[in-house]
Amino acid sequence: MSERPKFEVVDRRKIKAEEEKASQQQPAPAATAAPSEPAAGPRLVVNEPRSEAPEETEPPAGEPSLGSELPPPPSAKETREQKAAYDASAQRLEDLIRAQNPAADPQPPVGFEHLVQQLYLTAMLQMGAGTQEGQRPRVDIVGARTTVDLLGILAEKTKGNLTSAEDRMLQSVLFEARMAFLELTNMMTMQPMPPVPPAKK
Q1: What is the spatial distance between Cα 129 and Cα 180, in angstroms, rounded to a whole number?
Q2: Confidence at residue 21, expressed as pLDDT on a 0 to 100 scale
Q3: pTM
């Protein structure tokens, strides 16, 4: 069985430059000096004390534990500042687009239906939908399965937290995506399998 791909989460918050600069300029007294450790990367700025996180429970069997691989969550202040900066940047982009296209309507706010539609569209494109006439469809059946599974996870994790219209839309999209996947895989499995090449002696 192939190993699962590993990934690294990079913490993109501010670097504590002032403390690093001060520690480089002022050597510690010889009596209390501890063995120096190399500064091997960015250090986080602590803007406000964080409340102690509740003890983590063991994940259910079969689910990977990501707690040890993730950086600590951002504080409420960091989240507010980042959201304000993001909104300001998005507004500048919107103003730039409107300046280039004065007749264009403003972009509607992104909602839950956009997420569902994006996943559905991605799954259908991975299954070859939208191929121009006369061209051979390019099918990514493994990617399509992953995207359909993501829709299923979304339906499971949002159960009881959606409006009736949102739930109806999600269930309909999930049904259509699964049916398209079934039809495509049935077509693929009914085709004769290519002959196995003879083993080299």
Answers
A1: 10
A2: 58
A3: 0.58
Q: pLDDT digits over 128-183, tens only?
A: 998 888 888 889 999 999 999 999 999 999 999 999 999 999 999 999 999 999 99
Q: Is residue 160 part of a domain?
A: yes
Residue 178's domain comprises 112-190
Give CA–CA dist 180/187, Å, rounded.
11
- 23 within a domain of the structure (yes/no): no
Residue 94 lies in a domain: no
Of 117, 118, 96, 123, the closest CA to residue 107 belongs to 96
Identify the residue whose tokens are 């190993």.
3
Q: Tell me, what DSSP letter sits at residue 54?
A: P
Total count of residues recorded for the chain: 201
Round the average pLDDT of the chain to a whole number and report it: 78
Give the number of other CB atoms < 10 A from CB of residue 40: 6
Question: How many structural domains compose the chain?
Answer: 1
How many CA atoms does the CB half-sphere of 21 hold within 13 Å? Answer: 4
**Residue 141: which of 130, 127, 131, 152 has the closest Cα?**
127
In a domain, 151, yes or no: yes
